[in-house]
Design brief:
The protein has about 250 residues and is of the alpha/beta class. A seven-stranded parallel β-sheet has the order 3-2-1-4-5-6-11, sandwiched between helices. It has a two-stranded parallel sheet with strand order 7-10. Strands 8-9 form a two-stranded antiparallel ribbon. Helix 1 packs parallel to helix 2, helix 1 crosses helix 6 and helix 4 runs parallel beside helix 5. The protein is globular, with a radius of gyration of 17 Å. About 45% of the residues are buried. The mean pLDDT is about 95.
C-alpha cells in the first residue's frame, strides 16, 4: 500500500496531483478548506475508499495534527506528502499591502507547510519500513518575482530553504525533500495570465499556459522514485512563458 497526503487537493494543481496519485493506486488523504471541492476530486478519481476527504484549515495546529492522525489511523503509514496549499495577495505596491494580508500569506504558504512537514516526519521516521518523500510546491516565484508580489515571492523563496532543510535533516531517517517549481499551469488561479499580466518592464502582456495535467504527472514521477533517488528541484513550465530572461 502506498499512502499520500495532498494539501489544497480541491482545485488546480492539488487536484491534478491527487488524481494522478489515485489513478496510480495510491491511497490519498485529500486536504483542503472546502469539503465540496474535495468531494469533487474524490468523485472524479473513481477511487472509492482510497480517496479520503479531510476538510481542514491547516493554519490551525490542532487541525493539522487531526488530519495526519486520521491518515495514520486509517492506513498505518505515510509515504508521500505533497505540500501544495497556498495563496497569493493583491498585486499592489508593497508599501500598500496590508500587514494582515502579508501575515495571512505567510501563515498558509510557509507556517502551515512547516506544520504539515513536522507531522509527516513524525510518522515517516517511526514507521516500518521508515522514510518517505515530502514534495513542496515552490514556484517560478521561488527564483524570480513578478511585479508587486512581495508576499507570495517572499514565502516561495522561504519554501526553498525549507526543502533544503528537509533534505539535510531527513537523510538519517530516509526522508527525502523535493520541490516542484511550476510556471503558468492552467488553473482557475492562473487563467488571468492569458488576458495579460504586468511584466517587469511595466508593460501588460498575455502569457502562455500549459495543461495542469502535466504537473500532476510530474508530481507522480517524483513520488514514485525509490528513496535513494531524488529530483531535488524540478521546474515545469509553459515553454514560452517569460521566465528565462525575465526582467
Amino acid at each position: 500500500m502506498k499512502v499520500a497526503i495532498v494539501t489544497g487537493a480541491g482545485t488546480g494543481i492539488g487536484r491534478s496531483a491527487a488524481l494522478a496519485l489515485l489513478k496510480d493506486g495510491y491511497h490519498v488523504g485529500l486536504v483542503g478548506r472546502r469539503r465540496d471541492k474535495l468531494e469533487e476530486t474524490a468523485a472524479q478519481s473513481d477511487a472509492g475508499e482510497r480517496a479520503l476527504v479531510l476538510a481542514a484549515d491547516i493554519t490551525k495546529d490542532a487541525e493539522v495534527k487531526k488530519i495526519f492522525g486520521e491518515v495514520k489511523a486509517k492506513w498505518g503509514r505515510l509515504d508521500v506528502l505533497f505540500n501544495n496549499a497556498g495563496m497569493g495577495a493583491p498585486a499592489v505596491p508593497m508599501e500598500e499591502l496590508p500587514i494582515e494580508k502579508f501575515r495571512e500569506v505567510v501563515n498558509i504558504n510557509l507556517v502551515a507547510m512547516f506544520m504539515c512537514t513536522q507531522e509527516a516526519i513524525r510518522i515517516m521516521k517511526a514507521q516500518t519500513p521508515k522514510g518517505g518523500r515530502i514534495i513542496n510546491n515552490g514556484s517560478i516565484s521561488a527564483h524570480a518575482p513578478r511585479p508587486m508580489s512581495v508576499a507570495y515571492t517572499t514565502t516561495k523563496h522561504a519554501v526553498t530553504g525549507l526543502t533544503k532543510c528537509i533534505s539535510l535533516d531527513g537523510r538519517k531517517d530516509d526522508i527525502v525533500g523535493s520541490q516542484i517549481d511550476i510556471g503558468n499551469a492552467l488553473t482557475d488561479l492562473a487563467a488571468r495570465m492569458a488576458k495579460g499580466v504586468p511584466q517587469a518592464d511595466g508593460s501588460v502582456r498575455p502569457e502562455p499556459l500549459m495543461d495542469v495535467k502535466h504537473v500532476g504527472d510530474a508530481v507522480l514521477h517524483m513520488a514514485n522514485l525509490p528513496l535513494d533517488v531524488n529530483v531535488q528541484f524540478m521546474t515545469i513550465m509553459a515553454t514560452k512563458m517569460p521566465f528565462i530572461g525575465r526582467g
